[in-house]
Amino acid sequence: MLKKEKLAIIHQWYPNAMTTIDSVNRLIDFVEEELELEPGQVMLADSVCSDDVNSIQYPARASEFLGPFKMGGLDGFPFTGLTGMGAFASHVPDCGAVLIYYGPHIGITKNGTIGEIHRIGQSKNSGCCGAAKGALAKLASGQIVPGHVTDLDYQMNTLEQILLRQKDRILSAPTPLYEATDVIYEAIDERINELVSKTTYNCRYVILIGAILINSDSDMGSYTSIKRFDVIDLASRERQQLVERFN
Asked: Which residue numbers delimit the Limiting CO2-inducible protein B/C beta carbonyic anhydrase domain (predicted)?
């Protein structure tokens, strides 16, 4: 299947999506040409789901950056918190940049079915993101108890509470899983920006890329629908919003 044919399937749901490989290539060009940095001067942290498919489909060229430092747990929420952000911030080269790529993920099969992918070696499709689908099922059946967060299933319970706060919005949507993924993105975006505001970085720039990470079947690869691309100049405190460069 040609690249344009694959993109046509993904664009049914996310019209601005590009291959994850292309997004990394474009980002490296930006870092080199606009910020005048080498990728080896950039410390990458990602806050994406711990699902194994995200390791399998991780773009090889991302290894040109330092890292990655792993901030995310189930569906990408930054469960490492302020301590994780502070630890990662202390690892960045003095004259370099921090790059944080974050957001939830969702599956789209080559047939255009959302919430599923065909994984390597399996005879049937499986859920993606399974945690988001599980939380959504509990939301729809009224099984989520407000404020119920346990040590035994802390991350899942946190996702459930995020969805519960937007119950009517999600369940009234034409495609509740699509809407739930947007709700989770908004929660991640808010938390990442809060963590950034409370962290000291001894470098030149902080780059924030917020996105929906889209997984597909093993022969389709992964895609990214970018929702935020901000560059913060730490000397001037100027924050540029450059998302149109990726759309």
From this structure: 19-233
pLDDT for 247 equals 75
Determine, yes or no, domain membership for 197: yes
Give the amino acid at 29.
D
In this structure, what are the phi and psi dihedrals at residue 2, rounded to the nearest 5 degrees? -70, 155
Quote the domain boundaries for residue 63. 3-23+45-119+184-246
pLDDT beneath 50: ranges in the chain? none
40 inside domain: no
Residue 220, amino acid: M
Angle at 211 between CA 121 and CA 101, to 5 degrees: 90
Please tell me the total count of domains within the chain. 1
38 part of a folded domain: no
| Residue type (1 letter), 179 | E
Q: How many C-beta atoms surround the C-beta of residue 15 within 10 A?
A: 10
